[in-house]
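Shipment paperwork, digital attachment
Item: protein structure file
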Amino acid sequence: MKIVILDGYTLNPGDLSWNEFEKLGQCKVYERTSLTNTDEIIERIGDAQIVFTNKTPLPEKVFESCVDIKFVGVLATGYNVVDVNAARSRNIPVANIPTYGTAAVGQFAIAMLLEICHHIGYHSQAVLAGKWNSSPDWCFWDYPLIELDSKTIGIIGFGRIGQTTGAIAKALGMDVIAFDNYQSESGKAIAAYVELETLLETSDVIALHCPLFPETEGIINRDSIAKMKDGVIILNNSRGPLIVEEDLAAALNSGKVYAAGLDVVSTEPISGDNPLLTAKNCIITPHISWAPRESRQRLMDIAVENLKAFLAGQPVNIVN
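Attachment content:
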């Protein structure tokens, strides 16, 4: 059996092992494959029966050309890069990785918030640059420092990751409220569920942990920002298109939004003309919430188990 991994580098830049895949068949790993050259994708898949992809697209043309494909594994939770209908029409199951980075992503959301509140990185660099030893006072700070105790965090999307963020925020003394169309007992133990309007109007911090659906695309926009408190903090390490970036940039520059912490943007890698690159008080990181080694190892382990389950005739985590 031939296994092709089209873009393995982001999952495993060298600190993990592909051995478990190699035990299951003849395995070829490409660090990167073109995102736009379908002919290259088709050539690299060739007559492989098993294909794993992270961000390399698999449109219908790939399935038309690569007739030996029997199984597609997505090395991520999102699977929009695969034409799942084309795969389904050929009886090719597509499996994703539904839960691997819950702890890491929740931790990262709070890390962005704490950086906004204390600007630890900036102040460390200021000390190293000599600003403290030349200070007339025994301490200094160049940004307002914010205490989170008793402030309200509103979390839009309160599944596993949202609840993890909420639990950490609660441990910091924050009041946690949440909006989600599906309420759970585990969620109620952490937060008070409220309507979206209430969350927008009363939150000091708003964190996005919802999936990207037509009804959530652009949920943070000029109109929703206008309903928020002046000086609100916005966090997004879910999906970039949840935010209308021009509207958020304008709100940051006007001061309506005090700060934003973003690990995702609408186009990735980020476009050089993205208005958030020049917006005030905007932290942007390169989509790394998911990337601690422990999280990536978990992802790889689940991908292997997905393949083993398929080979055993009992496929799991099938999205089509």
